[in-house]
Amino acid sequence: MAFERTLSIIKPDAVAKNVIGKIYSRFEDAGLKIVAARMTHLSREQAEQFYSVHKERPFFKALVDFMISGPVMIQALEGEGAVAKNRDLMGATDPQKADKGTIRADFADSIDANAVHGSDSSDNARIEIGFFFPEIDIYLR
Ligand SMILES: Nc1ncnc2c1ncn2[C@@H]1O[C@H](COP(=O)(O)OP(=O)(O)OP(=O)(O)O)[C@@H](O)[C@H]1O
User: Which PANTHER family match (predicted)?
Assistant: First the structure.
């Protein structure tokens, strides 16, 4: 397993439910370290750019509307196999299909409002971390 970083976003539904701390504990208990963090309210332009791979999908506008509906908490996580480990902690995109004990099973209500985002590959993690965090804001071991 490679030592790597991944980008995580706690989406507006989970921020509104006041479960940032509970979700951070999942990361920490799994051995992932939070090396950068920022709360922000995304602009429409930022959300459209971040999710541009989905721009032709029927759910794109709803996804962007949801991501700008309230503040989000954005973090870079670091650790052994961080990308896959975070995806395992998150659970399936649709919370109805997410394994018991995953973040989405425990905190998400629907496929639209599904609590968290996590990079799906190490290459995308590098791009997504660069999108939100200038190198100077990342705290190394
Ligand atoms: N069929 C769908 N209907 C509505 N929303 C969807 C659908 N598929 C995906 N989405 C939304 O778009 C987001 C991005 O889709 P993607 O397939 O990349 O899922 P994911 O990788 O599990 O989620 P994320 O990219 O947020 O980590 C999902 O998190 C979800 O909120």
Answer: NUCLEOSIDE DIPHOSPHATE KINASE, NUCLEOSIDE DIPHOSPHATE KINASE DDB_G0292928-RELATED
